Amino acid sequence: MFIILGSLLALAVGAGFVGAISGLGGGVFIVPALVIFAKMPMRVAAGASLISVVATSAGASVAFIRDGFTNLKVAMVLECATVTGAVAGAYLAGHVPAVVLELLFAAVMLQSAYSLIRKRGEAIVPESDALASKLDLGGEVRDDSGRLIHYGVVNVPGGATLMTVAGLMSGLLGIGSGALKVLAMDSIMHMPLKISSATSNFMIGVTAGAGALVFLSRGDVATTIAAPVALGVTAGALLGSRLLPHLKVESLRIVFIIILLLTAVEMGWRALSGI
Amino acid sequence: MDRNPGRTAVSSEEDRILRFWMPILLRTILTLAMLVLAAGLVLTVTSSRHYFVERYHEVQRGHLVGSEKFPNFGRNILAGKPHAVLTLGLFVLTLVPLLRVAFCFLFFIKERDFTYVALTAYVLAGLVLGILLGRVG
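Above: the input entities. Below: the structure tokens describing the complete assembly.
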């Protein structure tokens, strides 16, 4: 009993740590670990995954808001797009074959990892464009050398479009889609990676929170699995968010690339094995 | 415009509220959720020698406890039934991100920042609609 409980907790701490520093949520590791190693049904893994996304978001949020990494205005603007996509996805769920979506998702992840490997150290833009200025979206962040730099936000419509896709994926597949969210803010809207991670962390919690409430009220959560996962993930996320200010952006990006590749393999595996 | 280190684009009053009160509120709820979950786990481990392992194997076969009616749920929490206590802990945990949006909404109203009041209201409405539709996340 204690071996099972201990392994679940250890797995969850690791998932929460990486989930928090990358802004992806812990689900990326929780789902394959529960399905492959613990031999849990997909429905149980999906419920635990939603809970773990909420726990990562909640655990990391405390430190992130205090440090000022979370850009709440950007989060609200983009969450409008995500929610729209998620509700549309909920409508569409059942009409589109999951295999098609999962393979599509795996392809998007691979492409994202490739673009991140090629384009390292995205230059941040000093000034926001017209729409972003009107919405007052810019902010300030310290770079690796501790220097305070102002960052602008550009291409809100482009970012919102990708966020709608991220929301659509969430509604259809029951995942956090944190990777797409970070990508939208980092690559399209040219926000600093730390700000993107923290803001994505807030957003995944909101969408997954709504999903988790549905699962919980339906009684679709295996509490004996989800509870140790939630405890471990929260502890890992607290630790990860405390360390984020001290981490180098470059190492963060490498971790992010590895996670994208893992996600792609996982999604492809899920699609092809027909789970 | 004067800007503080590492902050997002907000005024100093917004900054104080967002960075001081919100983490305190969130931390309190998060701590509460963790305490309830930890208590639930202790109950799970101590309730009977084999409860956890039995549940674990049941879950592997896809057998979940299922939803409970509210009066029963309350009674089971008071009776210290592990499943009910753990469900309560998970519910409290789920409130954290949703309360953040609600908190932002109240805050933007107070600031009379109506663009953001409208945006946040849209998000809240979408979440409620999503829950009603039965599947978001």
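Note for the figure: The beta strands of chain A are 139-142, 148-151.
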